[in-house]
Amino acid sequence: MSLEEPKPTDVGETPDGNVDYAELEALLGDAVIGREEHVNAPAFVVRPDEVQQALGALREEAGFDYCSCVTAQEYEDRYESIYHLKKYDDPTQEVGVVVPTTRDEPVSQSGEAVYRTADWHEREAYDLVGIEYADHPDLRRILLPETWQGHPLGKDYNPEKPQVVPFREHANPLEPDQRGEGSESDTMFINIGPHHPATHGVLHVETVLDGEQIADVEPDIGYLHRCEEQMCQQSTYRHQIMPYPDRWDYVSAGILNEWAYARAAEDMADIEVPEYAQVIRTMSAELCRIASHMLALGTFALDVFGDFTAVFQYAFRDREVVQDILEDLTGQRLMFNYLRLGGVAWDIPEPREEFFEKVRDFLDGLPKKTQEYHNLITSNEIFQLRCVNTGELPPEVAKQYGATGPVARGSGVDIDLRRDDPYGYYEELDWDVITEDGCDNYSRVLVRMREVEESAKIIEQCVDLLEEWPEEERTIQANVPRTLKPDPDTEIYRGVEAAKGELGIYMRSDGTDKPARFKIRSPCFCNLHTLREMTEGEYIPDLIASLGSLDIVLGEVDR
Amino acid sequence: MSSEQEIHDTVSTQEARMGDGVDNRFNSKLREAFGSSPFILTKFDKFMNWVRGSSMFMLQFGIACCSIEMIHTYAIKHDLDRFGAGVPRASPRQADVIIVPGTIVSKFAPRMKRVYDQMPEPKFVVGMGSCTISGGPFQEGYNVIKGAEEVIPVDIHVPGCPPRPEALIYGIAKLQERVANGETSPVTVKPYELEQFGDLERDELVQHLADEIDEDDLVMRYNWANSP
């Protein structure tokens, strides 16, 4: 870093890399009508008809090029949309933009023209809460069926109300279709999913083909929208919420997700986690990352080669080993429920030496296995033909869509919250953030494979630390009140680096033991939004490869 | 040396090549049970049921978390194929068994119903996980169907969140047993069926949607208040 030229600071940035909020407020001028203090960063209250101007100024002048999340919520007297902004260069520089609207006329200006990612976020806000966004290009429901009545996270929603859901053929958005009478059109509409082996779950991709090329593609999601936010809003902070994160990204990434909730709630209630517990968390989270990336690799090979035999089975063999280790630690194969607020559920299982030996055996065997994967996959000519230079996602586009995780890092965007916004024990350990500049499907796969090696490095250091840890200092749990009631109107947005990217959680407390609003910022949701950019004009096999390389999990996309 | 030579002299070349114990591998206990006769006498139906249970093609059908454990059941280590039930078919028209691995929500239920309808008879359903029993941890969700049995008939329920691969294998072994015995769940009329929009009772909601939905469109109507 020291060899680089010092980069010019943006408006509102102090030389030591902090944000000068007074300067930002001056930048926004008349649009600001107040300021709120959130736990993560201050937020400006902006007039609903000045949203675009305010966001535009923050993006262009102040360098906030990353809109990580849009949260919508309903109060007794108003609706509110919150844009959580960050910088890709330094995600600790944050600012919120709060847009209140009246209950009678919940219309605010759309931020889509400034941040492309706001498109889907605002559609979700419209769908679940009922805020309307003026100038939005395509304000439809996104998660619920289009004929749904009411907005379920709004205050006056009646869950007992009957609903009618249609089951009909989708129309070709680029009419005329070739099937039309006497049509000379070449475009053909084709559904991929929701039940299709290449969609990794219940994703529906509405595709229009011109010959074998893709003329239009639109992911249709919501086939696994199981009300995770509602579930968390009716559960207590202390114990009841923790099992749900396991089920967002269910590809063995459980502890990474639990950590997202644990971090947000601990910061909100000011809980200090013992160092020993942080090391255990770090180790188990990285084991989860390996398991998750192995599945990504195996299913990607399945998509690209149709290879249900060698690579797929090898990847699952390695996952089994990781799952065995995690089962020893947590008692579960998949839904760990291992983290607690302020620590972890229990210590390393006795006999400790046996557990550490098992982990070390796995780590010792890993280099040979990764070499095997490289021989079978990345150096395979057929694989390279399918993946190199297909599904290109330039870094600027990736940033526009709020892409994070291996998808962003495969496009050369150097962001990793483990390093940039440190938590847990990552800061003390020696490891690297992997980036690749290829911007294509191949780079994204390569990033995941190399991240497995980095995770192994982290785990090894954690095991060393845990082995040496003096017996009397093995505190696994901080002192946390049995019923946790954060101060009323505390608001926080916090993210961690989950397997697929930034998994963020927004929580607002109302003084009770349950959150008044619980919003999940899912990395897959944003990453999937880039699909159109990656595949339009490409061939249909490239669409399948691109979808596989995004490594989405529908449980997290739909929540 | 000499005694060994004698043995070789007394056996045929074929037997010598096959070596000891190979006969058993080919003809097994079954052959022993038949005695000297190569013919068996059984009812055709019984034989067919036995065959059906011993060679089941599963539908490759992933919904949610349980599908990860389902893949593990198919994959190395657990290897469901050992039990004659591990060839996932991507098309419902080639499948005998559908494992429903996960939460079913309002938008997906009509699609799942259609996939089930596309499978040829006789077809069997294994519900995997708590969500397919009652909605599981998401039961109170505004969008969640309270169990797969609301939409399609289920033969075997495997509880767990998610069930371990061993549990799923046990469930499938139980299904094979039932199929071999010729037992299946009766197909009953379910609360949520696909029907034409024009056939729905004309209440306030249907009136409201009348200009959005075509009379001939298939729809599923969810009466949340009556669901269990």
Topology:
The complex is a heterodimer of chains A (559) and B (228).
Chain A: H1 21-28, E1 32-37, E2 42-46, H2 51-60, E3 66-74, E4 78-86, E5 95-102, E6 107-109, H3 118-128, E7 132-134, E8 163-167, E9 187-192, E10 204-210, E11 213-220, H4 228-233, H5 254-269, H6 275-305, H7 310-330, E12 339-340, E13 343-344, H8 352-378, H9 381-387, H10 395-400, H11 405-409, H12 417-420, H13 441-468, E14 491-498, E15 501-509, E16 515-521, H14 523-529, H15 531-535, H16 540-550, H17 554-558
Parallel strand pairs in A: 2-5, 6-7
Antiparallel strand pairs in A: 1-2, 3-4, 4-5, 9-10, 10-11, 12-13, 14-15, 15-16
Helix pairs in contact in A: 5-6, 6-7, 6-13, 6-16, 7-8, 8-13, 13-16
Chain B: H1 2-10, H2 13-18, H3 22-34, H4 44-54, E1 57-59, H5 65-74, E2 87-89, E3 97-101, H6 109-118, E4 124-128, H7 131-134, E5 156-158, H8 165-180, E6 194-196, H9 204-209, E7 218-222
**Mean pLDDT over the residues of chain A:** 88
Strand content of chain A: 15-25%
Number of helices of chain A: 17
| Spatial shape of chain B | elongated
How many separate domains make up the residues of chain B? 2
Note poorly predicted spans of chain B: none
Low-confidence stretches of chain A: none
Structure characterization notes:
The complex is a heterodimer of chains A (559) and B (228). Chain A is α+β, with helices and mostly antiparallel strands and 559 residues long. Chain A has 3 domains: 21-134, Beta Polymerase, domain 2, CATH 3.30.460; 187-220, no CATH class; 228-558, Orthogonal Bundle (Cytochrome-c3 Hydrogenase, chain B), CATH 1.10.645. Helix content of chain A is 37%, strand content 17%. Chain A is built from 17 helices and 16 strands. Chain A has helices at 21-28, 51-60, 118-128, 228-233, 254-269, 275-305, 310-330, 352-378, 381-387, 395-400, 405-409, 417-420, 441-468, 523-529, 531-535, 540-550, 554-558; strands spanning 32-37, 42-46, 66-74, 78-86, 95-102, 107-109, 132-134, 163-167, 187-192, 204-210, 213-220, 339-340, 343-344, 491-498, 501-509, 515-521. In chain A, the strands form 5 sheets. A 5-stranded mixed beta sheet of chain A has the order 1-2-5-4-3, covered by helices on one side. In chain A, strands 9-10-11 form a 3-stranded antiparallel beta sheet. In chain A, strands 14-15-16 form a 3-stranded antiparallel beta sheet. In chain A, a hairpin with a 2-residue loop joins β12 (339-340) and β13. Chain A is globular, with a radius of gyration of 23 Å. By secondary structure, chain B is α/β, with parallel strands linked by helices. Chain B folds into 2 domains: 46-180, 3-Layer(aba) Sandwich (Rossmann fold); 194-226, no CATH class. In chain B, 37% of the residues lie in helices and 12% in strands. Chain B has 9 helices and 7 strands; from the N terminus they run ααααβαββαβαβαβαβ. Chain B has helices at residues 2-10, 13-18, 22-34, 44-54, 65-74, 109-118, 131-134, 165-180, 204-209, and strands at residues 57-59, 87-89, 97-101, 124-128, 156-158, 194-196, 218-222. In chain B, the strands form 3 sheets. In chain B, strands 3-4-5 form a 3-stranded parallel beta sheet. In chain B, strands 1-2 form a two-stranded parallel ribbon. In chain B, β1 (57-59), α5 and β2 (87-89) form a beta-alpha-beta unit. Chain B is elongated, with a radius of gyration of 25 Å. Chain B starts with a helix and ends in a 6-residue tail after the last strand. The model of chain B has no long low-confidence stretch (mean pLDDT 82). At the A-B interface, β8, α4 and α7 of A face α5, α6, α9 and β7 of B.
